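Workshop exercise sheet. Pairs work together: one partner reads the sequence aloud, the other fills in the structure field after running the prediction. Swap roles for the next sheet.
Pair: D.N. / O.F.
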Amino acid sequence: MSVAASCASRAALEELLAKLRMEQDEVTDTLKILNTSAKAEDKLADVQRARARLSSSLDTAAELGTAAETAAYLSESVSNRVNSVLLLYNRALQARTMVDQTMALKQAIVSMYAAMDQRDWERAASAARMAFDLPESVRTGSFAAKMTPTIELPEAPMVSLNSAAQDMCALFAREFKKAAAERKMDQVTRYLKLFPLIGYDQDGLSRYSWFISEVISGQSRSLLLLSSHDPGSTPDTNPKFYGLVFARLFENVAVILAQHAPLIERHYTKGSAMTQIVEKVQIEIDTQSGLIIDTWWDERRLDRVLSEVKSYSYPALAAHLIQTNQDQPESFETADLATASQILAELTTMLNRWALYRSFIEERWPEALKSMYQSELEEKIDRQLRPAFDVLALFVFRRSVEKAVDLDELPPAGSEYHDEAPLVSTMIDDVMYVLRTLLEQIEDAGDKKIIQSSLPSFRRVLEGDYMGTIQRKIRDSAPSRLSSDTQSPFLIYLNDLIISSEYIAKIVRSIFNLDQVAEAQALVDGVTSKAQDMLDSGCQTYFAAQLSTQIRTACTTAFKGSYMLSPTDNESNKAVVFEGLWRKTFEPLQKQLNPSVYKKMVSLSAGFTARLLEKYIWLLDKKVNEMGAIALDRDISRVLSVISESDYNLRDKFVRVCQIVMLIGDEEIETVLTSEEEHNARHIRV
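Structure field:
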């Protein structure tokens, strides 16, 4: 009977089934373990085989390690041997170099003394240079001290070298001085080249600086003494004498420096050597230029001249500005214009040459420029010459303006204006000529401080004295309402204003760069502004006194009556009459006035005419028919054509007049009129 059959109930059967499943799981686990054990044995066998191979590799590695240790030992041994050989080689090479250099030192010293005995200074100096170029360790070393002395030269090498160099330096100095005194430039150049070879560069530069200073001093003295040998070239007979002497001084210095600079820079330290020379030469320049300036100052009696110039009161100019209705006071002139002009020209030459010399040095050796600005000459210029220049330039200009105003004449009656020959008074050309000359002198002086001080002074003279005189002449010659003189001086003086401002601006711009010289720009702006203000005022004066009356007469004469025209009689001669009267008034003006002045006159007149015509048209209420409106439009168009001949933009002043006329003709337009004015304009025509 099976176990399952013995189960009496369902629960017993389920319990039996559970036990069977547990037993099955145990059997399965046992089988898995057995299977795993077989694989482990296989792996273990693999490990045993790998162990055998690894053991063989370890034996091989041990053998290689032993071989490497042996190789490293051999390598270190070889390296040490190589280093020892290299060390021995370098020591041998150094020893050989030391021996060679010591032999070269000995040979150079022997050759130097041999050349000195033969007075072959170039070879001696070159041998000394070879010795000095050797390393100091060789020249001062104990080996050289033992090996170089000879029976003839028992001293240590540096003792022999220094002794010979000192002897040669002293000899070169004597020979250089002798050659310089005899002006043998080939010998001067010869010995100048030798100083740096023996290590006495500074001595050479000092000797050369002394030589140039001697040349400068000698030439300066000879120039100042020239007057005693040449009666035709003395301070009294030649007003440019001291200026030329001063100029020659700097020209000679510049020529000498330029000629010898290549030699100096080739044999001495480039740049710094010439800088030292320039700085030392400047000391002699200070002395000689100071002597020239002091002599010039005394001979030209500058103290007296400046005192007279400063005390001059410009009586004639004051009379023109203030006392125009009185007799001019008699002028007892103590300050001579010609003398002041000559001194100023001479002073300009001096300042110009100093500026050119500074520019020359700045371009070639800019490092030396600082010493020039700190020199005694620059201090003397700042203390004496610049103030003197300002005083003299201002006097010459203002006195010239005074003379020009005093001698002023109007052009002949009947003259007409031309661009090539403007219709102006004679003082314009005189003043402009002097102004150009003086501004060119200021520019030629090459001194920024003088420009900064002189131009504002000139501006004050132009705006105050010159323009003030023209303003007074305009005021005194202003026409009255009863005058009918179409060639009034008043118009000429208006031309003077505009031509003066244009000429002044042109002159200043041709001499100075206005973008870089603020004082020049201020001068042009100030004079132009004042001239324009005076011109506007003058044009208003002439318009009020003359043109307004004549234009009013022209308008009332031409435009009278109504515009009630018939189809058979639809022509109007009003514009023709106006044109004739207008041309009669303005054509003479156009022949006399500068175009700019004439344009201002016409502009004022056009505005006034427009107001008169507008007033006349408003008075035509119910006096214009259809044909009359057409004629009115033609007349106004002709008037505009006549008035705007010289300037088309003058039509803008008649905008209101034209729009009123168009509204009278029933045209639909946008206007600048008010609504009421538009309404009234449309109802003028019947």
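Discussion prompt: The radius of gyration is 55 Å. What would you look at next?
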